[in-house]
Amino acid sequence: MIHDSPSDQDDKSESDETGEAQDSGTLRHRRIRSFVTRAGRVSTGQRRALDEFGPRFVMPFTPQPLDWDAAFGRTAPRVLEIGFGMGATTAEIASARPADDFLGIEVHEPGVGALLKLIGEQELTNIRVVQHDAVEVLEHMIAPDSLDGVHIYFPDPWHKARHHKRRLIQPKFVALLVSRLKPGGYIHLATDWQNYAEQMLEVLSAKPALENTVGSDYAPRPDYRPVTKFERRGLKLGHGVWDLVFKHR
Ligand SMILES: C[S@@+](CC[C@H](N)C(=O)[O-])C[C@H]1O[C@@H](n2cnc3c(N)ncnc32)[C@H](O)[C@@H]1O
């Protein structure tokens, strides 16, 4: 295992397990989320980057579609990345693809600070960040038929079977993703957890609006996705990594 699931460190309460919460005596349904809110310490450098670069590069969550042209100051292909972690991959891809604009979503504040630090150090202008649940961002801030690509790298695998319902890549979520993609737009996923890779392949292959770019199998890692340090360590230990690249027909 290369990436840990937060679920395996702190187990969930019964109400979290069922996705229901007791609220003033009434039972209301709450969405089962793909992440747990972690306190996580923000380092001095990350705090400085949040203060210095946040106002320019962090887009507040709003329930209205984002105006990408206004946010980036140009019109360019639009790629959404979900759960960028500490942002190293995001920065590397954005630097290698200066003609494309990248909107990164992450809930974890130290990660947002880390990516802003890279943006500042490398003077990257084609990344914007939203610190919010990606499901709500997709539902409210991303217009239908507007994305040229979606990247989701090493999403939390939620190892335990009873937590699989927290996995991001499920039919309903993929339907939401597809609705936001332009025809011809792509979804690129990667995971180091075989059982999740199989689920990803099954869910994406079952969607008639999507076409697997490599027939019916996993894809070779596209050149633009760098090998992360976690991945390199895992590969040395003989672990596998699976990429999937599908296109909206
Ligand atoms: C295992 S990490 C992988 C990070 C990074 N993509 C990488 O390859 O190293 C998964 C990340 O997704 C974030 N995440 C999970 N669900 C999310 C959601 N619904 N919205 C935004 N971020 C989410 C988590 O906070 C975590 O940082």
Mean pLDDT: 91
N-end to C-end Cα span? 34 Å
> What is CATH's topology name of the domain at 44-143?
Rossmann fold
Biggest beta-sheet profile: 7 strands, mixed
Q: What CATH architecture of the domain at 44-143 do you see?
A: 3-Layer(aba) Sandwich
CATH homology-level superfamily of the domain at 44-143: Vaccinia Virus protein VP39
Rg of Cα set: 18 Å
Content-based structural category:
alpha/beta
What small ligands are held by the chains? S-adenosylmethionine
Query: How many strands?
Result: 9
Strand content: 15-25%
Question: How would you describe the shape?
Answer: globular
Adjacency order of strands in the biggest sheet: 5-4-3-6-7-9-8
Poorly predicted runs are: 7-25
Order of helices and strands: HEEHHEHEHEHEHEHEHE
Helix content: 25-40%
CATH class of the domain at 44-143: Alpha Beta
Please, how many helices? 9
Provide structural commentary.
This protein has 249 residues and is an alpha/beta fold. The chain is 34% helix and 20% strand. It has a domain at 44-143: Vaccinia Virus protein VP39 (Rossmann fold, 3-Layer(aba) Sandwich), CATH 3.40.50.150. It has nine helices and nine strands. Helix 2 crosses helix 5 (109-122). The longest helix is centred in the first third of the chain and has 14 residues, at 44-57. It is globular and about 45 Å long. The model is unreliable at 7-25 (pLDDT under 50). The structure holds S-adenosylmethionine.
